[in-house]
Amino acid sequence: MSETTDGTAPAEEFDSRVDHLLQTTCEVARALVGAHQAAMAMIVAGDWARARKYFSLSDKYEQWKDFTMPGRGIGLHAVVVAKNEAICMTESEVEQHPAWRGFAESAGKHPPLRGLLAVPIVGEDGLNYGLLQVSDKVDGSDFDADDERRLACLASAAAVGLDALRKVRALRLGEPAPASPVEPATSFVVIEPA
């Protein structure tokens, strides 16, 4: 494998930048919608077993700060990714949904979901990178359409970053990285402070 100008292997540099982008996106998601929890799963080559997961938890969830769980691609996560559509549910709607698995083998160890807002991260050509989700609004209310709009905008920005990183990696490896046509934005989205 060839090295980059800074002596780092392209795959390692790519992984490091992806990790930074997605961990930062989790932090921003929590602040943007005023949630105690944010999580992100990036599916690697369509394989949930190799999914990379990122978490951001407020002090309220301090006891779960070291919690990890492998991506499995089942339950509500699978619904968001398979349909490339957002879901927004109250806590009781989550628990009544037919795809709800009750945290499967992580039951009792997983932080509770107090409502759920999850959006797909979709890049160029419909490439699904995974999903971004938040739970437990800081003010105790349910997630609403404004929260969904904000989170979807953030997921779109993360997808642009992932697309760019994927192309840079391809170019550094001598592979083609064609530019996809960009459609002009029909409107601007202003994200107000929460």
Share of residues in helices: 25-40%
Rg, Å, rounded: 17 Å
Q: Which sequence of strands runs across the widest sheet?
A: 2-1-5-4-3
Return the average pLDDT rounded to an integer.
80
Structural class: alpha+beta
Q: How much of the sequence is in beta strands? A: 15-25%
Order of helices and strands: HEEHEHEEH
CATH class: Alpha Beta
Helices, by number, come to: 4
Verbal overview:
This protein is 35% helix and 21% strand. With 194 residues, the chain is an alpha+beta fold. It has one domain: 2-Layer Sandwich (Beta-Lactamase), CATH 3.30.450. It has a five-stranded antiparallel beta sheet, sandwiched between helices. A hairpin with a 2-residue loop joins strand 1 and strand 2. Helix 1 (10-33) packs antiparallel against helix 4. The termini are far apart. The model has no long low-confidence stretch (mean pLDDT 80).
What secondary-structure arrangement, pairings included, does this model have?
Blueprint: H1 10-33, E1 35-44, E2 47-57, H2 75-83, E3 87-89, H3 91-96, E4 116-122, E5 128-137, H4 145-172
Antiparallel strand pairs: 1-2, 1-5, 3-4, 4-5
Task: Give structural attributes.
single chain; 194 residues; alpha+beta; Beta-Lactamase; 5-stranded antiparallel β-sheet; 4 helices; globular
In short:
This protein has 194 residues and is of the alpha+beta class.
